[in-house]
């Protein structure tokens, strides 16, 4: 029995070896840096900039939403940098799944792989429902009313259908999802056929091939960026700086709560890594595209939120279609809201294409490794894409979009995404301190994972330990301490004297773990791109991700 348990444990913890510089793939390498950058921009800049900005400004942060976007952009950048190094290390299609397989083992790769697949399925479904909601709002709820009258609501939904969103009074400094003003339902109020149609239509573009999908995405993304430039340039002519007199209406807590919500507007940079097997030179293009896309998206979010806060007081913002309605209220020409609405729909569409582009490639990577059905790893000989995976999981996304409520989808999406970011940051630390063959003599391992010789009292005591084991143990302890900090903050137990003592203990343990890891030697593996300030930067990413996971509601974890 013991031997069987050990055998099972070794299989679950075994890691995948990918030779350095291995560019073999069944997919077609046809994407350049511009293509990959536009995939990231399109995936990130879609629904968030036209939907999330208004919600955060109206309910949580006011004009300081601009600061919230800067903070969340920096937090997202920490995770993006970790992804960029892995993209340079292992130019494969699996994104965080492949990185977890290489760094943490098969069981973690399996868990993260399914999390990523779920993330992209739910992302596609959520964006599809956002698109449908925006169309219905522009049509003054005509689509919704027709569906309710002719198709009828879902029979198993016992929650009454809410009235169409209007610019009614609302609580300031309270997240709409937590205000309790409206009873939420897991199931949508009625079947959403528009979301099904737009998801299926977008999948056709993705199924035509990587270059064709990239071209469609690039055209739509550039059109969306032009609309953003127009909104900022024209909107600033309506600026009234007195609206910034109360820049922090909800204080620091409002800024941080806004940053937590804005962080999910940056979801999508991990989609860049799924293009690793279709990039012409992935070891250089993936890191560059990551930097470029994050810079473009952050600038757009900051400028758009700043412009909106100067055009209208935050407490007078409408509940939906914020930019279009604000320009209408300011007596802008009638074609201006139309242009903005078209830009918003194009932006949401590019976000959907980005999710559907990443989804089958994540499935393909797991299927190719034998962790799920190999049928999904088959590459179509004409399009050079995993067409079986595209068809299967697009249908799944369409069914979910037709059935589930948007808020429920966002709740599902949040945990899996942050968990994937957390594992990637942890895997990066483990790989940096894992022994690597010496370049001139591959049969000899370097000093990676061993205590530095200039710290004699530690070097002597730990000389017999297997290199890398102490890194793993300290990393686990550090993540437990980070979780303790997050729980104390989320439950507000830190205001209790015992909570203060526990907080000090957890902080000291965290600092000690980071310094202990830094006392080890990193391996000598040479890469075209490496994250700087390891282990400090990935540890900061771990802390932020764990803090955000502890801020999620109990219902979200149960779901």
UniProtKB/TrEMBL annotation:
The chain crosses the membrane at residues 36-54, 66-84, 96-117, 189-208, 220-240, 246-269, 290-315, 335-357, 387-406, 412-431, 471-491, 497-517, 529-549. Pfam families: AA_permease_2, AA_permease_C. Gene3D superfamilies: Amino acid/polyamine transporter I. Signal peptide: none annotated. Keywords: Membrane, Transmembrane, Transmembrane helix, Transport. Residues 529-559 form the Cationic amino acid transporter C-terminal domain. It is a multi-pass membrane protein. GO terms for cellular component: plasma membrane. InterPro entries: AA/rel_permease1, CAT_C. One of its GO terms (molecular function) is amino acid transmembrane transporter activity. It is found in: Membrane. This is Cationic amino acid transporter C-terminal domain-containing protein. It comes from Pristionchus mayeri.
